[in-house]
Write a structure and sequence with these properties.
The structure is a single chain. This protein is an alpha+beta fold. The protein contains 14 helices and 18 strands. Strands 4, 5, 6, 7, 8, 9, 10, 12, 15, 17 and 18 form an eleven-stranded mixed sheet that branches. The protein has a five-stranded mixed sheet with strand order 3-14-13-16-11. The protein starts with 5 loop residues before the first helix and ends with a helix.
Length: 481
């Protein structure tokens, strides 16, 4: 029989304890140092028990403070607080308008194969430079006096909200309309769902991984005001192939049927692709870096599509929201969603038919704290034909876009005031990958990492984040909210 000394057992216990602790926290959120640990044990070889001092070297992980990143989060929260006292002047004389504040970009997805790149060269679709300029804040591009109300800037009288409107046509527009049809179909069928067998309602909301959830909540916060479905993608076994993706939870497909489920996949794929194009353009990011950092629902390594592992499921996700039992109001205290920002690169929302979403648009002459400005509702641009065949998507910058643009792009502060009952929204949240290899290399991944002219530039912030797993930023910023 093999004998194990008490010293060996103690070492194995310490090693197991260390591994257990490591599982509780993301590795990149910690600094590493070693510590010498002494323990007195009994030697099994001694004729009589005697004290033997054994020294082990174990690894201790100490949480990094990351003060600049935490301060970054606190400043965003300060802007959110300041926005709550802002004006709501929708429809009033002299109010900021959607056409004035939110640039409209013409874009085309690459879903289903590469499209004709000459269309971009010919000015039919917005260039990468135009996309970047539309999202960048514009405080440094104006020489206006404090009393000048000229609206010739790209964001009019605002320094920039981090929001743009995307115009799609052709197959892309059809896919967005299909996504809207799927959303309506889901809620119609969930109202009449047979709960005698396995159902979406029975599934509820479940945890897949840390900060990764999916499922249906038919009464969010038990307030009787909204219902919410979060879905995520389990990629197929082949890299960069969206043909065999699975939507999680599976019960959604069983409820809506094959046609509606296909509509969902097509619309989500279009939003993913448009979001990746915008993010890459804004950050001047090359394709290798974009594939490494941006979670577009595809694999970056071959895998087994028959098994669902938490780390395989997409970090980006699609959400359906239905607002119920609400009375329209302009009061922040009655908001369905109070003023907030999203933990994403981008949030992309097919423009709903019913109003509710409002974007904080800080005044051009006000500076970075955003204490003055107006809430603006993004609506379909009125200079296009009412009978056009286009689809419109609202694209809002999240915290990760402000961080990685070195303060050039403001994270979009927004809220949802109580809309008319029955309003349905279908946003997609484009997030960083969370796998171990998704490490930010500031010099390699970001095309213009060290620009210092952004309104929200924070000296040293990107250096502090260099070599981090980008998604781990989420946990740190969450502590500042």
């Amino acid at each position: 029989m093999t004998e194990f000394s008490s010293s060996s057992s103690s070492f194995l216990y310490l090693a197991a304890l260390t591994l257990l602790l490591l599982e509780q926290f993301p590795a990149d959120a910690f600094s590493v140092k070693t510590k010498r640990v002494k323990q007195t044990t009994c030697s099994p070889r001694a004729a009589a028990p005697s004290a033997v001092e054994t020294t082990y070297t174990i690894t201790i992980h100490e949480h990094k403070k990351r003060p600049l990143l935490r301060n970054f989060g606190r400043k965003i929260q300060k802007r959110i607080v300041n926005s709550k006292s802002g004006a709501h002047r929708f429809g009033m004389e002299g109010a900021y308008t959607s056409d004035e504040i939110f640039p409209c970009l013409d874009m085309q997805s690459n879903v289903g194969g590469e499209k004709d790149s000459n269309d971009h060269d010919d000015g039919i679709f917005s260039s990468r430079r135009e996309i970047r300029d539309a999202f960048n804040e514009s405080s440094g591009t104006s020489n206006k006096s404090s009393n000048d109300d000229d609206t010739s800037g790209i964001h009019g009288r605002s320094s920039g909200s981090g929001c743009c409107i995307i115009r799609l046509n052709g197959e892309d527009a059809a896919s967005i309309r299909g996504l809207t049809d799927y959303a309506n179909d889901f809620f119609e069928k969930v109202d009449n769902e047979d709960t005698s067998r396995g159902s979406v309602k029975d599934v509820g909301v479940f945890r897949i991984d840390q900060f990764v959830y999916a499922g249906f909540d038919e009464n969010v916060n038990d307030e009787g005001r909204m219902q919410m479905l979060d879905t995520r993608i389990l990629p197929g076994s082949t890299c960069n192939n969206d043909q065999d993706h699975t939507l999680i939870p599976l019960e959604v497909g069983e409820l809506v049927g094959e046609t509606s489920l296909n509509d969902a996949h097509k619309g989500i794929n279009t939003l993913m692709d448009i979001g990746c194009q915008i993010t890459s353009a804004v950050l001047s990011m090359q394709s290798d870096s974009a594939n490494k950092l941006i979670d577009d629902g595809t694999r970056i390594e071959e895998g087994d599509s028959q098994s669902m592992i938490g780390s395989d499921v997409s970090n980006s996700y699609h959400r359906l929201i239905r607002y119920i039992n609400s009375e329209p109001s302009t009061d922040e205290d009655t908001a369905a969603f109070n003023s907030h920002v999203d933990s994403s690169f981008l949030t992309l929302i097919p423009m709903p038919k019913l109003p509710g979403l409002e974007i904080w648009s800080p005044c051009l002459k006000n500076g970075k704290d955003g204490q003055n400005g107006q809430w603006v509702r993004p609506i379909k641009p009125d200079y296009y034909d009412v009978e056009d065949d286009f689809a419109y998507v609202i694209a809002m910058a999240g915290e990760f876009l402000q961080l990685t643009s070195n303060g050039k792009v403001p994270t979009c502060i927004h809220r949802v005031l109580p809309p008319m009952p029955g309003r349905i929204s279908a946003p997609l949240f484009l997030r960083p990958r969370r796998n171990d290899d998704a490490l930010l290399d500031v010099g390699l991944d970001l095309g213009q990492p060290y620009n210092k002219d952004g309104l929200y530039y924070e000296p040293g912030l990107l250096d502090e984040c260099d070599s981090m797993n980008l998604w781990s930023v989420h946990g740190i910023l969450a502590n500042e909210k």
